């Protein structure tokens, strides 16, 4: 996730204080990984330095004075360009799952045990995400669906690879 571009998108909606940007980011995008305040303000500082946002006058508030950030035309243009670009098609051909299986086979280790352990971890995460779908908001449910679909794909790959371990062992150990 691109934090700078996400903050620009939130600022395009309306000028905001750093605290409000963090709250909105965490609520909509931070699921389980809230954005640290330091990262919010460091990012806003870089965006201001690069002419993507401007900082308004300090306003009194509860606690220290607060600054309102406003997106500039350059920031809006960058955000619009980013929004229109497709996300890179995943996955890459070399994944950690694949690497571990091949290395286990090359080294004479139990690749099937690794696949079984990975399958169990995927199934546990799928149960967690299914509970999120059942109890969460629509935003939570859609994010959970995205994760579930990826995990289902990985499980299909794990099962296919487990069925082909002997042939794969022969291929990778003959090199």
Task: Considering the chains and any ligands shown, give keywords for the structure.
WH-like_DNA-bd_sf, Tscrpt_reg_PadR_N, three-stranded antiparallel beta sheet, elongated, PadR family transcriptional regulator, 175 residues
Describe the fold and architecture.
The chain is mainly alpha-helical and 175 residues long. The chain is 67% helix and 11% strand. The chain has eight helices and three strands. It has helices at residues 3-13, 18-28, 37-49, 73-84, 96-106, 111-135, 138-163, 165-173; strands spanning 16-17, 53-61, 63-71. Strands 1-3-2 form a three-stranded antiparallel beta sheet. A hairpin with a 1-residue loop joins β2 (53-61) and β3. α1 crosses α4, α2 packs across α3 (37-49) and α5 (96-106) runs antiparallel to α6 (111-135). It holds the Pfam family PadR.
* Poorly predicted regions: none
Biggest sheet statistics: 3 strands, antiparallel
Number of strands: 3
What is the helical fraction, as a range of percent? 55-70%
> What's the average pLDDT?
89
Order of helix and strand elements from N to C terminus = HEHHEEHHHHH
Domain Transcription regulator PadR N-terminal: 7-80
Pfam families: PadR (PF03551)
Protein name: PadR family transcriptional regulator
